[in-house]
Amino acid sequence: MRKASWWLVLASLVMTMMVVTTPKTVQAAENSKRVLLVYDSQNVADHGQAKIAAVQRILTGLHVRGTTMAAEDYRAGELADYSGVVTLINWPQTKLDNAAFVRDRNRFNGPQLHIGMNLTSTEAQRLHAHRTNLYQQQFSLQAAHQGVQQLLPFKTSLTTLTDLPTDARTIGWLTPQSLNDRRYPYGTIVDRNGYLPFLSTGGYAFMLATQTIATLFGTSGHYQPLLTIAKVTPYSNLELLDQLSAWLYAQGIPFAVSTTTVGDNGSFKAYQRFAKVLRRVENRGGVIFLKTPVVGGVTASSGPGLNKLMNSYLIQFAQNQVYPVGISSSAYWNQDRVYRTNSLAKANQVLLLPNPATTTYAHQDNQATIFKQAFYGISATSFESVKQGASLSRSGLDFAIPTALTMTMPNRQASLEDVTRRIHRMNYQWYDPTQQMPQTLIKAGTATIGYHQGTYFLNGAATQVTNEAPKTQTLAPVKPAQSWMNRFFKTQGVVLLVFFSLTLGIFGLFILIGRRVYLNMFKPK
């Protein structure tokens, strides 16, 4: 009996230890892909905010949950909640003046990356290298094993690394135009520490920077670029879009279209023409990304309205056999709780485009989420100066994250011819959605839209896309969610209606009785 009691006590202790330690394990798993991005200044005058957005989009493309924070907002100990840290210097003339962050970063053992000037001596020691400052130089960026190179804009100052250890990993080399016999590393990784002397939001430097970040955080992939026609609207020159999609189909080039739409007027002939051209795009190997609407006059309470609007967009598209494979938006939408929850979260695949000159937030929280696949949208123009011998090799561009090279929708015949010439000159091996795109899913109210290996699915059933106008199909309407407050006021309204109806009835009865009493007073008895 006593032995059995000891076994019960021992079993209780084991169960208690399991209960205590399980939450820590779960928390560690959740933190395994969380990275803190700390920047010194937005430096709008030098487009520093675009660099912040670029790092945010890169992390999202790598399936890394990123939190963005200004250095002045950092509080001691916060870095312990993250598995990695990125320091972005946008304004090297000012010192990163937050002793708590510098102290926590120096003690941090996870992967950490420094981008830009002002590399500290502690960071250089972790890289086991020496710092060298270069001034008034123009560099050519190249990777020896790929043979690709690109001439970079003039740099007034640059901090590079020398005397690297033998185990250092270098991604790309910078060769000064004035000193062809010298070269300096671009992306450098030593152990769990990385360094990029600068960050470009486009071109070959962007591609190598992405490879550096992906390698450091252990999530590197290999992707061909997705050709994307951007800025399409129902008011675009649809004849040119039809011609462009026909030309791409004849050339065997898969592509995507990022387009806005309208939530009503679906029965108008203009909308029907718009939907017909998009159906032809789908039948010619193209895929559709639904672009989020233009923002104006939003607040933190605008979520339900945005949710209803996006649902109406998607349902009206589906009723016309236009089936988006994802949602496209400006990058800052993923940094806003209202936009993210009521728009981007409807899809498991997104296309994140550069931010406009003016960004309007509803509830900015800088807590980006991740998706099954997130394309980094970047202008194809930034890659047109990349050279590799006589022509750019089809295998020359190796992107570490899903990347969409965008071209603006042509608005006249001359610009259409220019676009086709540029695409033909690129000679890339393009991303093929029918072969490479993972299964997509978009939820709009009670309806679901899917895509997998060239087949579209509506509410889980495979469906065909016809060039002509489809038979009208009615999807279940989206019922707005009712809160307890709405139900309360609705019930209160019914109660008040019954109360006043009874009151009026009683008053009417009193009036009739009073009238009879009054008339009886004057009748002879």
Instruction: Output the strand order for the largest sheet.
Output: 2-1-3-4-11-10-9-6-7
Structural class call reads: alpha/beta
Contiguous runs where pLDDT drops below 50 for at least 5 residues: 1-32, 389-395
Average residue pLDDT? 87
Most strands sheet = 9 strands, mixed
Q: Roughly how much helix do the residues carry, as a percent range?
A: 25-40%
Rg from C-alpha positions? 30 Å
Approximately what portion of the residues adopt beta-strand conformation? 15-25%
How many β-strands, per DSSP?
A: 22
Cα distance spanning the termini: 105 Å
What characteristic shape results from the CA principal axes?
Answer: globular
Tally of alpha and pi helices: 12
Key descriptive features of the protein:
single chain; 525 residues; alpha/beta; 7-stranded parallel β-barrel; 34% helix; 24% strand; disordered N terminus
